[in-house]
Specification:
Largest sheet: 7 strands, antiparallel
Strand content: 35-45%
Number of domains: 1
Order of helices and strands: EEEEEHEEEEHE
CATH topology: Protein Transport Mog1p, Chain A
Helix content: 10-25%
CATH architecture: 3-Layer(aba) Sandwich
CATH class: Alpha Beta
CATH superfamily: Mog1/PsbP, alpha/beta/alpha sandwich
Structural class: mainly beta
Shape: globular
Number of helices: 2
Distance between the termini: 32 Å
Number of strands: 10
Strand order of the largest sheet: 3-4-5-9-8-7-6
Length: 193
């Protein structure tokens, strides 16, 4: 999924948290993500108030990948209901998947902000001829809206049969998403590191 995306102001947006980073200067609202050791940025774009960054494992690229982490920031869309974006994402997949299933993992809060999680199982992306499984976490900040995804792509599969990926991979994605947070230097309940 590629789109044109907007400029990211310095220190606002995607921050990969690593012990070596000096994060004391973070101001305003910031998305904090755990590192993906060995992974590389495969694609980045900005325009129309949106920033998109995609990461892939070593030896893979944006056109040929088995796993991907995607981060999207919708600037100025804080307060958006995560359910609304979830419905738009599901409709987009529905148009592009031969067969699909959605598992709703619930709505609640993350970093004291409205959030939702779900997984989409797409048996075969029509344009690619490959299967895809994507785990989503949407978070609505005060200033911006955030969508973080972990995806697998491989051979087409039958959604009525056991998944083509190991169950521990979904657990790994869940652990990753559990570490995603939003800090805000203006909010004592969500201080930045």
């Amino acid at each position: 999924m590629k789109s044109t995306l907007g400029r990211l102001p310095l220190l606002v947006g995607v921050m990969i948290v690593a012990p070596s980073l000096a994060l004391a200067a973070l101001q305003g609202e910031n998305l904090l993500l755990p590192p993906l050791p060995g992974w590389a940025q495969a694609y980045a774009a900005a325009g129309n108030g949106i920033k998109l960054v995609e990461y892939v494992p070593p030896g893979e690229n944006v056109d040929a990948w088995s796993q991907m982490a995607t981060i999207q920031i919708f600037f100025g869309h804080g307060g958006t209901n995560p359910h609304d974006l979830k419905q738009r994402v599901i409709e987009g997949f529905r148009q592009n998947c031969e067969a699909m299933h959605v598992t709703d993992l619930g709505a609640g809060t993350s970093s004291s902000l409205p959030a939702a999680r779900w997984v989409i199982y797409c048996s075969k992306v029509k344009q690619l001829g490959k299967g895809e499984i994507t785990y989503f976490q949407a978070m609505s900040g005060k200033d911006h809206f955030y969508l973080v995804q972990r995806s697998w792509r491989g051979a087409p599969f039958d959604i009525s049969k056991p998944l083509p990926i190991p169950q521990n991979l979904l657990k790994e994605w869940e652990t990753y998403l559990n570490q995603v947070s939003v800090c805000d230097s203006r909010d004592p309940k969500r201080p930045c590191p």
